From TrEMBL:
InterPro entries: ABC_transporter_permease, MetI-like, MetI-like_sf
Domain ABC transmembrane type-1: start-end pairs: 90-308
Protein's organism: Metabacillus halosaccharovorans
Membrane-topology annotation of the record: Multi-pass membrane protein
Recorded family membership: Belongs to the binding-protein-dependent transport system permease family.
Protein name, per record: ABC transporter permease subunit
PROSITE patterns tied to this protein: ABC_TM1
Primary location: membrane
């Protein structure tokens, strides 16, 4: 009997050569070219000015320049803490932004769901157009409209109150009512435009799921509660994380044009970090103090984003940013 020996052949494994960095750049040149405007923007406006942070640690002297001015360490930050301005500015800025984020997102979700439930396409398009218009109105014009309504002498509000026999209201000397005015104005201006993202997310939902739920007897409220709202959860979390990154960045245009920069009577409830920095630079010409507040704002915002992302990663890892 003849024995046949089979010679085993080891499989030839082709080692994938590592592409050089230049080849990877050339391979993705189209994507990099599309990203270039954003890269240039952040390089010029975010990274090149970074050495100017040193201004927060010196007593700036115009004749000496930033790097030759006297180094004072944390003296500018200590001054802000001792005067109490830092805590008031931080509280006002965070309180306003939380109101903007929470109320704004819930209203945007509600508007997107209502638009989705409209069956008349003609009425839906008109409704979308009307709701988008406030977003494109300049903050200067918004401030002018607010002044014409709230002015003590010539405002529409006081004219109406006098017409019905009531006493006029001194709006620009009453700090207690301005948080409501600012929040309502912001929601009026941003809700319609902000609902686009949620409306687009709803459009990405498989319609067969909604049709199947309707066949099974689910009414409109049940479809919204058990299908549409859970579908919008990842979008809401991502937008929330992005918004938290700017929780210490106030809407300067809105505050400046509604309240103004020099109305000291309204400072307790309307002064935020941006208006304080603007005032220290343009009125007091204290560049070191303004830079210290801005640096504090950036560092605080960074830690808020990291903390919020860590919490989301623990609760819902698939929805975290990184």
């Amino acid at each position: 009997m003849k024995t046949v020996t089979v010679q085993s052949q080891t499989p030839i494994v082709k080692t994938k050569t590592k592409e050089s960095r230049f080849k990877r750049i050339w391979k993705n040149r189209t994507l990099l070219l599309m990203c270039m405007p954003a890269i240039i923007f952040f390089a010029i406006f975010a990274y090149l000015p970074m050495p100017g942070l040193y201004l927060a640690f010196v007593n700036y002297d115009y004749s000496l320049g930033i790097f030759n001015s006297a180094f004072v360490g944390l003296e500018n930050f200590r001054f802000l803490v001792m005067t109490g301005d830092l805590w008031k500015l931080t509280f006002n800025t965070i309180a306003y932004n939380l109101a903007f984020i929470i109320l704004g997102n819930f209203l945007q979700i509600a508007v997107a769901i209502m638009l989705n439930e409209l069956r008349n396409k003609w009425f839906k398009k008109i409704s979308q157009t009307i709701m988008f218009l406030p977003h494109f109105i300049s903050a200067v014009l918004v401030g002018l409209l607010a002044y014409n309504i709230l002015s003590y002498d010539y405002g529409l509000l006081n004219s109406f109150l006098e017409l019905v026999g009531l006493d006029p209201v001194q709006t620009y000397s009453n700090p207690a009512i301005w948080p409501y005015i600012i929040v309502i104005t912001f929601l009026w201006q941003s809700t319609g435009y902000g609902s686009i993202v949620y409306f687009a997310a709803i459009m990405g939902l498989d319609k067969s799921i909604l049709e199947a739920a309707e066949i099974d007897g689910a009414n409109a409220f049940q479809r919204i509660r058990y299908i549409i709202i859970p579908w919008l959860k990842p979008t809401f979390i991502i937008l929330l994380l992005f918004s938290l990154g700017g929780v210490l960045k106030g809407n300067f245009g809105l505050f400046y044009n509604l309240v103004g920069a020099n109305n000291t009577m309204l400072y307790p409830t309307t002064d935020i970090i941006e208006t304080y920095v603007f005032r220290t630079l343009m009125t007091n010409f204290n560049f070191s103090l303004g830079s210290a507040v801005s640096l504090y704002q950036s560092i605080f915002g960074f830690f808020i984003v990291i903390t919020a992302n860590w919490i989301v990663k623990k609760v819902s890892p698939e929805n975290s940013l990184f």
